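Re-run with default settings, no changes from the original entry. Doing this only to confirm the output is reproducible before filing.
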Amino acid sequence: MRLAFGMCHNKDMRVQIKTIPNAKKESVIEAGGIYVVRVKAVPEKGKANEAVIKLLAKHFKVAKNQIKIIRGLASRHKTVEIK
């Protein structure tokens, strides 16, 4: 797993992210201690959250079930736990 800015609890890592839905291009960029995650999915019925989890799993090279949104399910600013 890549080292990242965030808090570590045991082997878990928590990172702050800002989600940008409806983006033209999907990407994960670290900026100023938080990750900016751009996804093409719309913010309806959890579609953007699913896309965020999928993209973060690919970025950190972990399985999707090892990523959990702790705070901000309905917000653009989220706290994510990566195991």
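The chain is about 15% helix and 40% strand. Residues 1-5 have pLDDT under 50 and may be disordered.
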